[in-house]
Amino acid sequence: MSTIKCVQCKRDKSVLDYDQDRHGAPRKTCQSCLQCQREQRRVRAESRQIQANQNIERAPIQPVGTIAPLAFISSRLYWNRLELGNMNVVCSSCHALHWLGECVGGTAAAPTFQSCCKKGDVILPAIKRAPPYLQYLLESLDTIARQFRTNIREYNGALTFTSVKFTADNRPAAQNGGITCFQIHGELFHMQGPLQPAPNTTPCFAQLYFYDPIYASQIRHSAHPRLNLEILQRITAELNTVNPFITLYKTAKERLDSLPAGESNARVLLNPQLQLIIESDADKRRNNLPTSYEIAIIIPDEYDQAGFRDIVLANRNPDPNTAFSIINPNHAAYMPLHYVLLFPNGDLGWHWSLQLRNEMQLRKNLRLSQRAFYRYRLHSRVDEPRTIFQAQRLFQQYLVDAWAACDQNKLNWIRLNQGQLRSDLYNDLSDAMLRDDFSAEQTGKRIILPSSYSGGDRYMQQLYQDSMAIVRHFGRPSLFITFTANPKWKEITDELLPGQSPVDRPDLIARVFHLKQQQLLQELVMAAMWFGYARC
Fold first, then answer.
1. pLDDT tens-digit profile of 22-37?
2. Per the domain annotation, does 188 fall within a domain?
3. 136 and 117 share a domain?
4. Which of 129, 152, 204, 382 has the fewest CB atoms within 10 Å around its CB?
5. Under 8 Å CB-to-CB from 472, ≥6 apart: which residues?
6. Where is mean pLDDT largest: 57-61, 253-257, 277-281?
7. Domain for residue 424, yes or no?
8. Does residue 242 carry a pLDDT above 90?
9. For residue 307, which phi and psi values (nearest 5 degrees)?
10. Average pLDDT, the chain
11. Whole-angstrom distance, CA of residue 171 vs CA of residue 167
């Protein structure tokens, strides 16, 4: 056995007498010498503490108005940790839970809040409670429930009606460790496929709901062997009982099969009013099918004309190249058709007919925006089930999907309103037309992103120019302060549900970070507590 000479005691000792460093190599000091060094440091630290206590007891009391001439006076003893308290303040309008620092008005006894319901102007129906077995899987702490929540994204993918298409960001996985999260590049789409599988192919997604629940669960388990077959069977049975879209899909398939053979191009649509429509042949006749007994709600204020927001549920002779159709994110069934484990009862998503309450008659625009809708949904309430907050990785995907829907809707508005943005004044089209070698075929159409779009080139340029203007006016900055979030902040860990970790609740981390950041800015700029007057 090889030996190594200790640099402390100068003795040759076996390799087993040495600790290993992070690279697996033996250290230069043996274990006994390291233990002696630790003991000596501990004794010296205790001696210093005893001496410091004695000096404090013997220190004379300074007369009022005198200052001890010290080279350095530590203020660590006067530091107070910022405590936001508990998230137990209830909004009087929507019953959402808040920290007191999130209020925008009112009194300490009756605060008002803007982020959850716009001071009571947003009114949405409460999310229905999940069926008993699914609720047990989301709340229980036993082994079966924990394994279900760990693989909940795969369970949802096996039970969903629609598929999702996106480009995943694999950079976090390549970093070998750290927090795992759901990240994408570019756009995210929900796709509706045909209701009948192609010959010699295995049925999937909505096609499985036309089979016997036990047989459908076996097909799902063969496609996802990591999942528990019994869990799939029991959840499938519950969804067939409570989810209204299953009956709606079955009705669409039955009505399409019952049409005459001569109507080869017929298809069944689900319009924004959540009504089934039969569109026949080239003349595009649209006939309503009775759906009041299949789905719990009809949206009367939505548009019922043919449009790009219709969901193609069934097509008699689908084109093989366009078998899958993209679902418009502005449709009320966009979210519940994919996130069946978050909305097992078919709770509707955002749609154009949602409006704000206007009791004071002061609002000009009564339309409820997508961002306001999702802000309302992302606040836990005392009288509403917390189903979406218990879904761990599926909750992360839902957040990314909601943000992508809002962002794509904003980009679509910018694309369709280039005239209002007066983009012709700051693009290069007018300059290109004045050149002698101008070719219309090579010019194309350019979409201008204004500086109001967060993350765009003009947005980043505006931030840079504003920063340089501040430096030009006030001078170079004295401090460069970075502020990061700590997932182990007490305000975050106290509000986690049983069995959760901070990575399962990005909504709490974002809210606590924003509150602490605003408090820091308030102390820097307004209170001038640390560095005196701040000129910015």
1. 777 888 888 888 888 8
2. yes
3. no
4. 382
5. none
6. 253-257
7. no
8. yes
9. -160, 175
10. 80
11. 12
Please tell me the predicted confidence (pLDDT) of residue 309: 62
**Max mean pLDDT range (165-174, 248-257, 454-463, 516-525):** 454-463
- Cβ neighbours of 178 (radius 10 Å): 9
Alpha-carbon distances, residue 391 vs 151, 152, 436 (angstroms): 10, 7, 61
Measured CA to CA, the distance from residue 345 to residue 313 in angstroms comes to: 19
How far, in Å, CA of 138 to CA of 342, rounded? Answer: 10
Chain-centre distance for alpha carbon 323: 30
Please tell me the pTM assigned to this model. Answer: 0.76
Q: Both 115 and 136 in a single domain?
A: no
The answer to whether 116 touches 91, Cβ cutoff 8 Å, is: yes
For the chain, what percent of residues have pLDDT higher than 70?
Answer: 76
Please report whether residue 466 resides in a domain: no
CA–CA dist 330, 405 (Å, integer): 8
One-letter amino acid of 4: I
Round to whole Å and give the CA distance between 44 and 54.
Answer: 15
Tokens of 248: 């709606």
3 state DSSP class of 376 = helix
C-beta separation of 3 from 12 below 8 A: yes
Number of domains into which the chain is organized: 4
What is the Rg, in whole angstroms, of the alpha carbon atoms belonging to the chain?
Answer: 31
**Full residue range of the structural domain in which residue 492 is found:** 478-536
Instruction: Take residue 119 and report the two structure tokens written for it.
Output: 């001071």
CB contact at 8 A, 316 and 300: no
Contact (CB, 8 A) for 175 and 146: no
Stretch (H or E) spanning 457: helix 457-474
CA-to-CA distance for 52 and 57, rounded, in angstroms? 9
Q: Within 10 Å of residue 106's Cβ, how many Cβ atoms?
A: 12
Indicate whether 107 and 169 sit together in one domain: no
